[in-house]
């Protein structure tokens, strides 16, 4: 293995991000989803054949197509900006000025280093500056940014930044507690460990507000 390959392996095995944004090429959407499915289907078929699998078996015949559709339409669907949820907001007519917390949002993502699942919970909060957002939209924002090859730190930041933009306030926070199967099922094979990341904006940087939020969620996440 060359020094360059060793360097890239070191980054991947230690789950280090090199980009605050998802590294997406400019021509990422020059072809249709259907064309992507056909290309990926052939790649999956070749991978399975290389591993020695018999694709004439009834159980495996449809696997390349199923995997390709899953990649494009489901687990990596958040790469497509056309699938970005509309963050419907409303005037805060009832003048609620305290913290709003949406906790235990189920999170399924994919580690960009090994393409293995990240499974956990996201806890999101904001303090209104005159605008509120539908509760389900918070879940959908988490889902949208999770459905792509990800690094947990980046995902946490993206959720906060999207809500800040939608709500017109810096007062947004997010904590994610998740298991990485690239740690739990391979490599060190530590099935108990989980990773916690956080991003605090505006008032949530203040010790008292941060503590109130953390008290609400208590980080008693169950997987």
List the helices and strands and how they pair.
Blueprint: H1 3-13, H2 33-50, H3 63-75, E1 89-91, E2 99-111, E3 117-127, E4 131-133, H4 135-146, E5 149-150, H5 152-167, E6 172-180, H6 181-184, E7 195-200, H7 207-217
Parallel strand pairs: 2-5
Antiparallel strand pairs: 1-4, 2-3, 3-6, 6-7
Helix pairs in contact: 2-3, 4-5
EC number: 3.5.4.16
Pfam families: GTP_cyclohydroI
Domain GTP cyclohydrolase I: 40-217
Describe the structure.
A 5-stranded mixed β-sheet has the order 5-2-3-6-7. It has helices at 3-13, 33-50, 63-75, 135-146, 152-167, 181-184, 207-217; strands spanning 89-91, 99-111, 117-127, 131-133, 149-150, 172-180, 195-200. The chain has 223 residues and is of the alpha+beta class. Helix 2 (33-50) crosses helix 3 (63-75) and helix 4 runs antiparallel to helix 5 (152-167). The two termini are 37 Å apart. Helices cover 38% and strands 21% of the residues.
**Helical/strand content category:** alpha+beta
Major β-sheet profile: 5 strands, mixed
Q: Please, what is the average pLDDT? A: 92
Round the Cα radius of gyration to an integer and report it. Answer: 20 Å
Low-confidence residue ranges: none
Total beta strands = 7
Q: How many individual helices?
A: 7
* Helix percentage range: 25-40%
> Which of globular, elongated, flat, extended, rod-shaped describes the shape?
globular
Give the SSE order as H and E letters.
Answer: HHHEEEEHEHEHEH
| Share in β-strands | 15-25%
- Largest beta sheet: what is the strand line-up? 5-2-3-6-7
Q: What gap, in angstroms, lies between the N and C termini?
A: 37 Å
Binding site for Zn(2+): 111, 114, 182
Family: Belongs to the GTP cyclohydrolase I family.
Protein name: GTP cyclohydrolase 1
EC number: 3.5.4.16
């Amino acid at each position: 293995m060359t020094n360059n390959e060793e360097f890239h392996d070191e980054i991947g095995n230690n789950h280090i991000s090199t980009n605050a944004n998802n590294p997406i090429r400019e021509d990422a959407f020059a072809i249709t989803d259907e064309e992507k499915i056909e290309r990926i289907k052939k790649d999956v078929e070749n991978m399975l054949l290389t591993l020695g699998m018999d694709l004439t078996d009834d159980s495996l015949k449809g696997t390349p197509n199923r995997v390709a559709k899953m990649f494009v339409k489901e687990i990596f669907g958040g790469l497509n900006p056309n699938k970005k949820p509309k963050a419907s907001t409303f005037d805060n007519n009832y003048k609620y000025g305290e913290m709003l917390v949406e906790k235990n949002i189920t999170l399924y993502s994919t580690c960009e280093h090994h393409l293995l699942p990240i499974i956990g919970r996201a806890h999101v909060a904001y303090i209104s500056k005159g605008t509120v957002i539908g509760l389900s939209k918070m879940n959908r924002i988490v889902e949208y940014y999770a459905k792509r090859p990800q690094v947990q730190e980046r995902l946490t930041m993206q959720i906060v930044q999207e809500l800040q933009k939608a709500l017109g306030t810096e007062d947004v926070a997010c904590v994610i507690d998740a298991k990485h199967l690239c740690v739990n099922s391979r490599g060190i094979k530590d099935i108990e460990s989980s990773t916690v990341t956080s991003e605090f904006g505006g008032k949530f940087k203040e010790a008292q507000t941060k503590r109130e939020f953390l008290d609400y969620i208590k980080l008693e996440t169950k997987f």
